[in-house]
């Protein structure tokens, strides 16, 4: 059994009077718990149960289901004053926060569970991811000031999120606010430095420093045009293009160097491509096609 199946199984468990405190009261201090009181003879229970299970499993751990057989737990039924089946309670932070009795249509069950997750703050991560994508979209459109403000707001929501920290840092880099960027990086815990978004930020910072004295593309264009095999001039042209954020043009010249001479200056062009792709990250639309082109050259 793989880990995903194990997780999904643990999202739905059977419980009883003796385990109720652990399985429901204590567990609801971590995530919302839906408690389904059912019986084998209850036809509506058999309709409702599978809907609850499939819906809760779809949320991958944001909410869990505890099933209680009413016939085997009559004292618990009396304690909770349950008079009809099925009866569903939602618990959060050790307290019942909502519930219903009787079978409901699937769309109403889904809305009920969605409401419980929302009211308990379980959809915060989803909302945060939407906000991150909006900030990243501003960055991709080169609206760096707006993106910086968006990432700044996100930092106030989750200051330890490496994707948010990296996005904020990349905005500082693009806006040439080097001192603020240095202060940001110096203040990071060592444990976060190895996370992919932060590694990407550090690589971009290094590339930016290397490209500051790269010159202008026109300084090298004619040299490359007159002598296409001049790898040194082509490499300098790629650095000058990178300094102007013309990544695709720069990469095409670096790929041409690899095609001309893979071993040129100790594999310098290929290493530059890898360094750039690591800085851009796997989510950048340039990364995957460039890796494919590089592989086709190397293994041709």
| Unreliable runs | 1-8
Query: Termini distance?
Result: 40 Å
Per CATH, the superfamily of the largest domain is Glutaredoxin
Strand content: 5-15%
Q: Give me the CATH architecture of the largest domain, please.
A: 3-Layer(aba) Sandwich
- Number of helical runs? 15
Structural domain count: 3
Strands of the biggest beta sheet: in what spatial order? 1-3-2-4-5
Return Rg in Å.
28 Å
Number of strands: 5
- Indicate the structural class: alpha/beta
Level of helix content? 55-70%
Q: In the CATH scheme, what's the topology name of the largest domain? A: Glutaredoxin
Description:
The chain has 15 helices and five strands. It is of the alpha/beta class and 300 residues long. It has three domains: 3-122, Glutaredoxin (3-Layer(aba) Sandwich), CATH 3.40.30.10; 125-211, Tetratricopeptide repeat domain (Serine Threonine Protein Phosphatase 5, Tetratricopeptide repeat, Alpha Horseshoe), CATH 1.25.40; 218-298, Tetratricopeptide repeat domain (Serine Threonine Protein Phosphatase 5, Tetratricopeptide repeat, Alpha Horseshoe). It has a five-stranded mixed beta sheet, with helices on both faces. Strand 4 (87-92) and strand 5 form a beta hairpin. The longest helix has 17 residues, at 124-140. The model is unreliable at 1-8 (pLDDT under 50).
């Amino acid at each position: 059994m793989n880990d995903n199946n194990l997780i999904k199984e643990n999202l739905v468990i059977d419980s009883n009077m003796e385990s109720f405190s652990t399985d429901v009261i204590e567990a609801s201090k971590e995530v919302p718990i839906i408690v389904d009181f059912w019986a084998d003879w209850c036809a509506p229970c058999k309709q409702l149960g599978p809907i609850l299970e499939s819906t809760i499993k779809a949320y991958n751990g944001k909410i869990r289901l505890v099933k209680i057989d009413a016939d085997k737990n009559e004292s618990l039924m009396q304690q909770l004053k349950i008079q009809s089946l099925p009866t569903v309670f939602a618990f959060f932070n050790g307290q019942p926060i909502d519930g219903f009795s009787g079978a409901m249509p699937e769309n109403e069950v889904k809305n009920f569970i969605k409401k419980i997750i929302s009211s308990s703050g379980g959809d915060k991560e989803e909302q945060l991811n939407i906000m991150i994508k909006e900030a990243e979209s501003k960055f991709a459109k080169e609206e760096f000031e707006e993106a910086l403000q968006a990432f700044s707001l996100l930092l106030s929501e989750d200051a330890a999120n490496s994707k948010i920290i990296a996005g904020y840092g990349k905005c500082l880099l693009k806006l040439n606010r080097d001192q603020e960027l240095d202060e940001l990086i110096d203040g990071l815990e060592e444990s976060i430095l190895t996370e992919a978004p932060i590694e990407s930020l550090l690589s971009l910072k290094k590339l930016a420093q290397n490209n500051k004295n790269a010159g202008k593309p026109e300084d090298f264009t004619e040299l490359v045009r007159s002598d296409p095999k001049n790898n040194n001039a082509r490499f300098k042209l790629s650095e000058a293009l990178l300094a102007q954020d013309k990544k695709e043009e720069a990469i095409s010249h670096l790929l041409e160097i690899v095609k001309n001479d893979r071993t040129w200056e100790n594999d310098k062009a290929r290493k530059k491509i890898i360094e750039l792709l690591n800085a851009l990250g796997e989510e950048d639309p340039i990364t995957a096609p460039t890796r494919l082109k590089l592989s086709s050259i190397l293994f041709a």
